[in-house]
């Protein structure tokens, strides 16, 4: 459920007409709903209320300071994957002991910064990384709390670019090797093993792959305890999918996910961490766009929008489907027609949908890409020197720009000319 609904014939974001935001901020623009963000966080928090837990929002999904602060104030921890994300989490007021650090390529500089600023745990992805963290922590005279990310070799049954839990993926260490790597972790200075980490992929629409992975984690927990490790924390990653279309069967709900975790892992007495990103932010955001032209081609009509692949890359990169709805609610009897919906960028890949059935639309009409809150704005670029799309946060009947659109002058001034090209 989200808070982008038609009311009195037009699309609202909570209690604000989307057209009003368009008039104030211009198009295109990302618009987020505070109520939806909080609702999704709370669903996860409640789904794990059977035991000690922390929901660490995977902030790579949408990392605007206002979004982070909204979630942090509700009690969320953060899952970060870079020094930049760590800095953003800290700037939003998240204490170090609620931040977990994931990712396969943590640099020595990032490791040092995070150890200085405080961290709940490193999720270690390889032996060389483990040795680097040990060395740096020991040299600083501190102890780094760590889990090791195991790769359970299960098929997440999702798009190849976002599957991470098969042995051919670059993530984690093979689960069969885990006891050996944990033994080394226990011997190394500067490390304290606190648990196990697993994350098998994104946009999973069934519980079974998770359950298979978590069963393997349960077994490993027993084995590592027999080996003398104190396993008190299980980080189960993110990955629960969201409905991108209204018509499709809905993926499992957080409450069902939480109950499955209790069934598979509840008996171990561990603190549970999860790292949902998409499910918290995905349906909490839309991308607003305006039709520039209706181009009537041979056998097909193109709707050319002012949003493009640089603003929302998911269709080009993951073959992703986004529902696209008109901001003015069509009459029930309106006959739909097929459109190819495209952006202005000079690439054929800049196509959002082909043959999409829509009510008649023309220049000046506003549309909204639904489910664009996760992996939308964060993956945007200024390709074709198109300004980064502004972000807007709605809260009840209020809205605020939380990242403004840069002017062309600002964009140009980010470059600098070397001395030899400067006029005298
Ligand atoms: C991307 C990622 C997540 C979040 O995945 P979602 O599908 O957005 O829930 C969580 N943990 C790790 C380690 C990730 O890489």
UniProtKB/TrEMBL annotation:
Binding-site residues for pyridoxal 5'-phosphate, renumbered to this chain: 239, 275-278, 375
Keyword Transferase: no
Pfam families in alphabetical order: Orn_Arg_deC_N (PF02784)
TM region(s), chain numbering: none
Keyword Lyase set for record: yes
Major enzyme class: lyase
Full protein name: Diaminopimelate decarboxylase
């Amino acid at each position: 459920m989200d808070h982008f609904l038609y009311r009195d014939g037009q699309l609202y974001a909570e209690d604000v007409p989307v057209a009003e935001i368009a008039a104030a901020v211009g198009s295109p623009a990302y618009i987020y709903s505070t109520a939806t963000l909080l609702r999704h966080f709370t669903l996860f928090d409640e789904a794990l209320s059977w035991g000690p837990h922390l929901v660490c929002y995977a902030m790579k999904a949408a990392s605007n300071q206002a979004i982070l602060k909204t979630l942090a104030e509700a009690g969320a921890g953060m899952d970060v994957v870079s020094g930049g994300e760590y800095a953003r989490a800290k700037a939003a007021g998240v204490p170090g002991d609620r931040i977990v650090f994931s990712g396969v390529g943590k640099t020595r500089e990032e490791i040092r910064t995070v150890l200085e600023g405080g961290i709940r745990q490193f999720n270690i992805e390889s032996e060389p990384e483990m040795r680097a963290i040990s060395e740096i922590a020991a040299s600083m005279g501190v102890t780094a709390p760590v889990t090791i990310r195991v790769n359970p070799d299960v098929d997440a049954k999702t798009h190849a670019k976002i599957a991470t839990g098969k042995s051919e993926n670059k993530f984690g260490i093979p689960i069969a090797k885990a006891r050996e790597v944990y033994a080394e972790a226990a011997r190394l200075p500067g490390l304290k093993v606190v648990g196990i980490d697993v994350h098998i992929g994104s946009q999973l629409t069934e519980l079974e792959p998770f359950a298979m992975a978590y069963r393997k984690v349960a077994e490993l927990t027993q084995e590592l305890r027999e080996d003398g490790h104190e396993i008190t924390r299980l980080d189960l990653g993110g990955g629960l999918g969201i409905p991108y279309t209204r018509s499709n069967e809905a993926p499992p709900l957080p409450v069902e996910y939480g109950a499955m975790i209790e069934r598979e892992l509840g008996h171990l007495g561990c603190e549970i961490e999860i790292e949902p990103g998409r499910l918290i932010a995905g349906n909490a955001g839309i991308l607003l766009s305006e039709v520039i032209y209706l181009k009537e081609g041979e056998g097909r009509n193109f709707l050319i929008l002012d949003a493009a692949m640089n603003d929302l890359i998911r269709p080009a990169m993951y073959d992703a489907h986004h529902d696209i709805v008109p901001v003015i609610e069509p009459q029930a009897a309106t006959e739909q027609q097929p459109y190819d919906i495209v952006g202005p960028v000079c690439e054929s890949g800049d196509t959002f949908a082909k043959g999409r059935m829509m009510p008649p639309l023309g220049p000046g009409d506003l549309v909204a890409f639904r489910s664009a809150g996760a992996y939308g704005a964060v993956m945007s670029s200024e390709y074709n020197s198109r300004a980064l799309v502004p972000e807007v946060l709605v809260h009840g009947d209020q809205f605020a720009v939380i990242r403004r659109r840069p002017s062309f002058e600002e964009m140009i001034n980010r470059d600098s000319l070397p001395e030899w090209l400067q006029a005298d």
